[in-house]
Amino acid sequence: MRHLMSPLDFTTQELDRLFDLAGDIQKNPQKYAHACDGKILATCFYEPSTRTRLSFESAMTRLGGRVIGFSDAASSSASKGESVSDTIRIISCYADICAMRHPKEGAPMVAAERSGIPVINAGDGGHQHPTQTLTDLLTIRSLKGSLGGFTIGLCGDLKFGRTVHSLIHALVRYQDIRFVFISPEELRVPDYITDMLKSKDISFREVIRLEDVMPELDLLYMTRVQKERFFNEEDYVRLKDFYILDMAKLERAKKDMLILHPLPRVNEISVEVDDDPRAAYFKQAQYGVFVRMALILTLLGLA
Amino acid sequence: MLNVGKIEEGFVLDHIRAGKSLEIYEHLRLDKLDCTVAIIKNARSGKMGKKDILKVECDIHMLNLDVLAFIDHNITVNVIKNGEIVEKKELALPGQIKNVIKCHNPRCITSIEQELPHIFYLSDPEREIYRCKYCEEKYSPSAK
After folding, report:
1. Which residues of A73-99 are buried (b: 16+ CB within 10 A; e: fewer)?
2. Residue A83's pLDDT is what?
3. Which end of chain A, C or N, has fewer beta carbons within 10 A?
4. B15 and B81 in one domain?
5. Which of A47, A80, A105, A129 is most worth mutating to test chain B (most B CB atoms within 10 A of its CB)?
6. Which CATH number does A7-128+288-299 carry?
7. Which of B73, B65, B135 is closest to B100 using CA atoms?
8. Complex-level ipTM
9. Global pTM?
10. Which one of B132, B135, B136, B138 makes the best mutation probe of the A interface by having the most chain A beta carbons within 10 Å?
11. Same domain, yes or no, for B61 and B34?
12. What tens digit of pLDDT does each residue of A203-217 get?
């Protein structure tokens, strides 16, 4: 029995198979409309996350399966003090597969160790969010044609953003990828990531202004710069506009550059960008459903 | 010169960094064993200047030596049987250690579920870095 705890749990060959399956689901949704008839997905969300939970529920429903679950800890037995280990043993009796989000890091792994059914980590604190990374990879592969041979700019909060860290770790397994990290000094990628890139001899640069590198990017992955991450208000006011993407900044971008964002966005991408053909962040949400459908089928052994 | 008698069966842990023997005593849980233990602190050493030595008289299968390697893999482990050294063990960093150190990450699941074991794995053998199995937080000796 397999679980998904980290995007690196799958080899690149396994990911290729997963993404091929997601592509087939996209092309032939009817073929998979009853693939999970009689199967139940439990969504155990110990903290609210509307998009991820609904994406899983949509994925299982589109496969013909059913969904049970809870959407915050207060409505679960955790409020009575039940451990994750006990909860998953019970859930294993009710469902065939479980997607778990938990504010504590490693909780889904504890569940996987005690579970009788496959467990998917749907986000554990600031640690991992593998289905977001799979979504990002599928979006890039589908819209760019391959995973490799491009320059990707990652912009915003690169210090605390787990989606960014996960994506970097997943992308370094592919060939000829150049990274450009665009962030204020305070929010640079952690040393352990730049150390890892150096040790693998992978090209990366760190810059402060998005405009300076825009023409060379094939992909731009935006994240939010949160005010509370700054040491003082003055720095925030000085730097915040560097990290807001608008049509003026996009003028110097390549015509086929892709703009990605894990969502929700607040103001870091101006709404005027939404209609630009390069904006891929809403398509990303659609790919998120396809990749979760492919993942459910794979972990249930139905692929 | 202080004289400590020979042991018949057990271990002599030599070349312990001076002052570290009590820490090792605790990690090996020697207080739980009903056996003779000699703790020699600040013994003279040609190689180290000063060193600690632990002599433990017990069944040679009773000690978890992985813990020793984690604390200091330069310790020399002499295995004693019938009063003689029958083996000198090389200590290698263990791939995994369980319930030896605790994860201090307040965001880790081990911080709220008390019954969970604290398991660390060797993530970087060259730099001797251990990480929590659950949250991957790096073990920092100062937090021990």
Report:
1. beebebeeeebbbebbeebbeebbbbb
2. 93
3. N
4. yes
5. A105
6. 3.40.50.1370
7. B65
8. 0.86
9. 0.87
10. B135
11. yes
12. 999 999 999 999 999
